[in-house]
């Protein structure tokens, strides 16, 4: 399993700091989940932030947490890789 590029702390929820209960793949869906796994585009989340609360990553229709995590992930990746490389992998700009 790859490590997250966004955190070394797998004990706490990346969003709120409660105990983490799930590993969230930041870019999800059939093909993107594999890419997230390969590149470490994932974060530990508590269940409430992940998929329990109405404004959780997977349930919020406004996608506040989802888009913020994607933006943070792209920014982190582009600290060590080019923007072109990110676009080749994900195909969409979030910043
Ligand atoms: Zn949380
Ligand atoms: Zn998830």
Low-confidence regions: none
Strand fraction band?
5-15%
Helix residue percentage: 40-55%
Number of strands: 2
Computed over alpha carbons, the radius of gyration is 13 Å
Structural class: mainly alpha
Spatial separation of the terminal alpha carbons: 27 Å
Ions, cofactors and other ligands present here are: zinc ion
User: Order of helices and strands, N to C?
Assistant: EHEHHH
Report the major sheet. 2 strands, antiparallel
Tally of helical runs: 4
Task: Give the number of domains.
Answer: 1
Q: What's the arrangement of strands in the largest beta sheet?
A: 1-2
Quick check: average pLDDT?
97
Overall outline = globular
Task: Describe it.
The protein is mostly helical and 95 residues long. The chain has one domain (22-89). 43% of the residues lie in helices and 8% in strands. Bound molecules: zinc ion (ZN) (2 copies). Residues 13, 15-16, 18, 45-46, 48-49 line the site of one zinc ion.
Q: Summary?
A:
The chain is mainly alpha-helical.
Topology:
Elements: E1 22-25, H1 30-39, E2 42-45, H2 47-52, H3 64-80, H4 83-90
Antiparallel strand pairs: 1-2
């Amino acid at each position: 399993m790859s490590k997250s590029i966004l955190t070394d702390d797998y004990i706490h929820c990346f969003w709120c700091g409660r105990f983490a209960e799930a590993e969230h793949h930041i870019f999800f869906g059939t093909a993107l989940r594999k890419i997230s796994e390969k590149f470490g585009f994932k974060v530990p989340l508590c269940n409430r932030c992940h998929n329990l609360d109405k404004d959780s990553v997977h349930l919020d229709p406004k996608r506040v947490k989802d888009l913020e995590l994607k933006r943070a992930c792209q920014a982190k990746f582009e600290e060590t890789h080019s923007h072109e490389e990110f676009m080749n992998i994900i195909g969409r700009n979030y910043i």
